[in-house]
Amino acid sequence: MTATERARELAVVAARAASDRKAQEIIALDVSDQLVLTDIFLIASGTNERQVSAIVDAVEEAMYKAGSKAIRREGVSEARWVLLDFGDVVVHVQHAEDRVYYALERLWKDCPEVELPRDARGGGDTSEFGGTDKDSAIHLDPGLRQ
Questions:
Q1: Is residue 143 pLDDT above 80, yes or no?
Q2: For 116, which of 10, 28, 30, 143 is 20 to 30 Å away at the CA?
Q3: What is the pLDDT of residues 34-83, one digit of tens each?
Q4: Considering the chain, what is the average pLDDT of its residues?
Q5: Which pairing describes strands 24-30 and 81-85: parallel, antiparallel, or unpaired?
C-alpha cells in the first residue's frame, strides 16, 4: 500500500510552509507500508530553536488552511524536536544537531522517498542530501540513507 493522494497533498503543503521559513533538508518518506497510523513522515531542520518554532507555526497554519488540524503536538516548548501529528502526515521539525544525532532517515531507510516540488525542499537539494548553498545548508551524511 502506498500513501494516499490526500497525504501526498498535505505533505507538499507542510513542506512548502517549512521551506518558506527557511527549513533545510526537507524530505518526505512514505511509511504507509511500515505503519498503520500514518502515511507520510515529513522531516525538516532548523538551525536554532527560534527557527524550529517559526517552522512549526508556519506548518500548523498552512495545514489548518488546507483543512487539517494537528491531532497531537510534542516538543513545542523545547523547540529541539517538534512532532506534529496530522493523521495522514506526521511532521518532524528538528534542530539540525538533533537531526544528525537521531538520523530518522537511517531508521526509515527502507521507506521510499516521496518526491517534493523544488519549492518545497528547503535550503538545499535534499534528494542527494548535498545541498546547493554550501554556506547555509545543513549537510547530512549521504551514508545515512544506505
A1: no
A2: 143
A3: 998 999 999 999 999 999 999 999 999 999 999 999 999 999 999 999 99
A4: 88
A5: unpaired
Paired residues of 84 in beta bridges: 73, 91
Return the percent helix, strand and coil in the chain, to nearest 5: 35, 20, 45
Cα torsion angle, 104, 90, 96, 78, sign: negative
The radius of gyration of the chain's CA atoms, rounded to the nearest angstrom, is 14
What's the CA gap between 83 and 42, in Å, rounded? 10
User: Which has the closest alpha carbon to 117: 41, 25, 15, 34?
Assistant: 15
Q: Which three cell numbers stand for residue 120?
A: 518545497
The pTM assigned to this predicted structure is 0.83
Q: Comparing 12 with 36, which gets the higher pLDDT?
A: 12
First to last CA, the chain: 23
The answer to whether the CB of 16 falls within 8 A of the CB of 116 is no
